[in-house]
Specification:
single chain, 214 residues, alpha/beta, Nucleotidyltransferase, domain 5, 5-stranded mixed sheet, 5 strands, 36% helix, globular
């Protein structure tokens, strides 16, 4: 398969493009670095769609603010970094972990079914960080996680390969998109930019449909 040539028959079925996996972009904001003990405070997920030319695009985004789980740790430096000064403030309209996860996972499960994929695969910038927090929250709340348990698409590695940049803001700029530092570290904003970055990279490497033996 020659990736340097533009295919005459690109794969336009997302389940074929990613071996039955549905890529979903995720960003989390947390109260620290330990997924088993620090609070998960905010999660955004963005679904992706593939067009008739086989190009990948950002689709729908969903975000939930989350209340710290009972007994969780809140690191002051982490709260200062992400700007969530008071995780319990009523204006956050934060929800318990279980409620938030159920609402975030619902559209993912719907798209998995609609596309015929077997499960979702998490796309993230430092993806294992996001996946670990999602997995621990799922285990705590007994909400089944729709994501592959250990495989991810990490835009750190992809952007490092394609653009020579591993910092999200620099990678996004290298890919030709705007970056606003004032909106950074808001889960929805980082998710949108990560989705744009991932789609831009994927669309540079189209796949050809396998030839039929019939």
């Amino acid at each position: 398969m020659n990736f340097s040539e533009t295919p005459s028959q690109p794969i336009t079925d997302i389940k074929q493009r990613f071996r039955g996996f549905l890529p979903v972009v995720v960003d989390v904001e947390t109260a620290g670095f330990e997924a088993n003990s620090h609070a998960l405070l905010q999660v955004a997920v963005m679904t992706l769609r593939m067009d008739e030319q086989g190009l990948l695009h950002p689709d729908q985004i969903y975000q939930e603010n989350i209340l710290p789980f009972e007994g969780s740790k809140l690191d002051a430096s982490a709260l200062k970094f992400n700007g969530i000064d008071d995780p319990y403030h009523p204006f956050r309209a934060a929800k318990p972990e279980r409620t938030a996860l159920e609402q975030l996972f619902a559209p993912i499960r719907t798209q998995i079914k609609q596309t015929g994929c077997t499960r979702a695969i998490l796309v993230g910038h430092n993806a294992m960080f996001d996946l670990n927090f999602i997995k621990h929250a799922s285990e705590r709340t007994k909400v089944k996680c729709p994501f592959h348990q250990f495989s991810t698409f990490d835009t750190v590695s992809l952007a490092g390969l394609v653009y020579g940049e591993t910092v999200l803001s620099k990678a996004v700029a290298a890919a030709g998109f705007n970056w606003d530092n004032k909106q950074a570290h808001e889960a929805a904003y980082d998710t949108e930019r990560t989705a744009q970055l991932f789609c831009k990279i994927v669309n540079q490497w189209p796949l050809i449909k396998p030839e039929s033996n019939a």
